[in-house]
Amino acid sequence: MLHASCHCGTVRLEIARKPRTLTECNCSICGRLGARWAYYTRTAVRVRCPDGATQAYSYGRKTYEYYHCKVCGCVTHYARINVKRNDKVAVNARMMDPDDVAAIPVRRLDVRRRTRGRAEPPAAPDRGGP
Ligand SMILES: [Zn+2]
Question: 8 alpha carbon to ligand 1 midpoint, in Å?
C-alpha cells in the first residue's frame, strides 16, 4: 500500500502499489502544476476525504477533471469526466513521500511540441500503465 496526501492532509489517497513509471508532461495544465503522474486503474486508488473537500477543475473540451484540496490547494489526482470501461486515474506522485518514488523512472512527454500548443493533457494509457 502506497499513500499520497495533499499538504494539509485533508485529502488522502490509498494506492494499491508503486507505479512502474511516472509521467511528466508539458501541456498547458501539467506544466503549470509541475505534477508527476502515476496512472492506475480506478479500483487501485481510494480517495479518502470528507465530502466536499475537493474541488474539480475542467477546461477546454471538458474531458478531464483535476481535483484539488479546497484547504491547501494541492492537486492530488485527475480522471476522465465521462468514465469509460478500464479508465485510469492519474495520481500526482508529488503528493507521495519522495522516498517512496525516488527510484521510479520518469517519462517526459513533450505534448506541447506534438500538438503545437493545443491544450489537452496526456490520455491515460489504456492498459498496464505507461
Ligand atoms: Zn489539503
Answer: 4
Centroid of ligand 1 to alpha carbon of 56 (angstroms):
14
48 C-alpha to center of ligand 1: Å?
A: 12
C-alpha cell at 70: 479546497
Q: For residue 104, what is the DSSP state?
A: S
Angstrom distance (rounded) from CA 60 to CA 63: 8
- Report pTM: 0.84
| C-beta separation of 16 from 1 below 8 A | yes
pLDDT for the residue numbered 73: 98
Q: Is residue 34 part of a domain?
A: yes
CATH number at residue 8: 2.170.150.70
**Which residue range(s) make up the domain with 35?**
2-114
How many structural domains does the chain have? 1
Residue 65: Cβ-neighbour burial (10 angstroms; 0-12, 13-18, 19+): middle
| Ligand 1 centroid to residue 38 C-alpha, Å | 19
pLDDT at 44 over 80: yes
Query: What nine digits make up the cell of 13?
Result: 489517497
Whether residue 119 lies inside any domain: the answer is no
